[in-house]
């Protein structure tokens, strides 16, 4: 279930309470009058079944409460209550299949921000991939896949395209482009430093190796990217987030970027080009599949998109 808190002007309180009383998927209704300071007003709280949350939030936004007041939603891990059980049973659908679209927009908007933490993870992941290439270590390559934070912005691109939120698309594209560019430049610098220090031999990327799958682009690269994108978006739009770890391990975006940087420094231009192709195929495949999942789940969203600006904090 989700915990819903609404800060509203006093003249809206009765309507909000009536709305939640009429919702079979809502329970544990609490009204606190005059306690809100900024913005001023009353506070109405309730626990709402996930499958009913999107409709409730839409009705609250239709009353302009996201502008004249505030609407916050939090995940409830455990609710020991017969009334909560009844609300979950009475709400239509299944919680795992429910999409809370405003929650998804907020989450992808946050994960698509270009900041120091995102860039730090991109650089570390790309450097790990380069070490995996040089040492021919598939385990290190997998570690780079897990550390890489690129799925967040890719999911944001898909959400933005499907919901026509071009501000979200622009932010996510900038994060991906700048993140990969900076990570590859730093990795190339690290490769040059390693070569100068005698830690790296040009033969490190020549011949057959266990990590050659990183640059071996083909039809299965696209298939894996499509499946990973679909699984990742299903995970983000449902209550089952554990699948994201498998998505991180299955795609070769970060490893391809690291391999391309190393190959370019060592003059292996064909492998550099193939690695870059692998990167592009994976990026495009993930976005396409994630977008398709959203389109297939489109029947659950409302026509209204309040177009709230993305959070910058």
Can you walk through the features of this model?
By secondary structure, this protein is α+β, with helices and mostly antiparallel strands. It has two domains: 2-98, Alpha-Beta Plaits, CATH 3.30.70.120; 104-300. It is 61% helix and 11% strand. Strands 2-3-1-4 form a four-stranded antiparallel sheet. Helix 6 (116-135) runs antiparallel to helix 7 (138-147), helix 8 (151-163) packs across helix 13 (269-296) and helix 9 (166-196) packs across helix 12. The longest helix is centred in the middle third of the chain and has 31 residues, at 166-196. The model has no long low-confidence stretch (mean pLDDT 85).
Give a brief description:
With 313 residues, the chain is an alpha+beta fold. It is built from 13 helices and 4 strands.
What oligomeric assembly is this protein in?
single chain
**Can you tell me the number of structural domains?**
2
pLDDT below 50 for ≥5 consecutive residues: which ranges? none
Number of strand segments: 4
Strand neighbour order, sheet with most strands: 2-3-1-4
Strand content: 5-15%
The averaged pLDDT comes out at 85
Quick one: biggest sheet? 4 strands, antiparallel
Order of helices and strands: EHEEHHEHHHHHHHHHH
Q: Percent range for helical residues?
A: 55-70%
InterPro entries: DUF389
Transmembrane segments: 114-135, 141-161, 173-193, 213-235, 242-267, 273-296
Pfam families: DUF389
Keywords: Membrane, Transmembrane, Transmembrane helix
What topology emerges from the helices and strands here?
Layout lengths: L1 E7 L1 H13 L3 E12 L2 E9 L1 H13 L2 H4 L1 E6 L6 H9 L10 H11 L4 H20 L2 H10 L3 H13 L2 H31 L22 H18 L6 H8 L2 H13 L3 H28 L17
Antiparallel strand pairs: 1-3, 1-4, 2-3
